[in-house]
Amino acid sequence: MLETQAELQKLLEQAEQSRRALLTIIEDQKLAQEEIKQLNKTLEERVNQRTAQLKASNEELESFAYSISHDLRAPLRAIDGYSRILEQDYAKVLDVEGIRLLNIVRSSTKSLDRLITDLLSLSRAGRSELKLDDVEMNSIVESIYQELTTPEIQEKTKFTVHDLPMGYGDPTLIRHIWMNLISNAIKYSLPKEHPTIEIFGESDSEKCTYTIKDNGVGFNPDFKNKLFGLFQRLHKASDFEGTGVGLAIVHRIVIRHNGEVWGDGKTDVGAEFSFTLPKRSETNE
After folding, report:
1. Residue 195 phi, psi (nearest 5)
2. Is a pLDDT exceeding 70 seen at residue 104?
3. How much is the pLDDT for 239?
4. Over the stretch 154-182, which tens digit does the pLDDT of each residue have?
5. How many DSSP H helices and E strands does the chain contain?
6. What gap in Å lies between CA 82 and CA 241, rounded to an integer?
7. Is 274 left (phi over 0), alpha (psi -120 to 50) or beta?
8. How far is it, in rounded angstroms, from Cα 103 to Cα 108?
9. Which candidate, 97, 260, 245, 108, places its Cα nearest to that of 183?
């Protein structure tokens, strides 16, 4: 009897020890969960704080770039105006070298003006409020091509536009996308004997995809990851005019519309650029 009681007491003590150990484990788990919860909260606060700081920095940088670009316009116009006066009224008293230097000044002024214009467009693409509406892509594409080309270029170029799905976005910004893509296709395909530009699109339940393809000088596909970077140029400035801002504008506008944009090409074969726009229902969400 005594042995049974002693054994029972021993079992009760072991059970109590197990209960205390279990309570300790449970308490430790609660503390661990609370620590994880607190860490997650702290991490989330830090991420939100850092995101807010980055957003503020980007907005400040864009505002600074807009201000600087805008303020540069006045002195640039003065330089252009005075150099034009020199060219018109004093060309007879300038020697060959003087005229050459004056032409450099005027050419540089025009290049800087194009750069400022593109930088302001890039800033507006990120700052302006989106005014979403249906966009008739075919009419935009056709009007831009007519605007950018002369009758001689039109006669030389085979320009094909297939039926494009109706887009949904900010009509002004969408026009900027096509303006940059079409002007690039014209510029880089003109050196070919028979320039060809083709524009087509497709849609599914979620998005519309638009593509422009040309048979121009193309580019090295190893560098296609640099296509949409600011001031990135895959061709020499002496070969083709440009500021290196156009595709950055395209990228920013497409991203603001929750779309995607990409490009591919081969040297001396041509280039192909595509972008997507979510359909109305998805864009509104």
Report:
1. -60, 140
2. yes
3. 55
4. 999 999 999 999 999 999 899 999 999 99
5. 7, 7
6. 24
7. beta
8. 8
9. 245
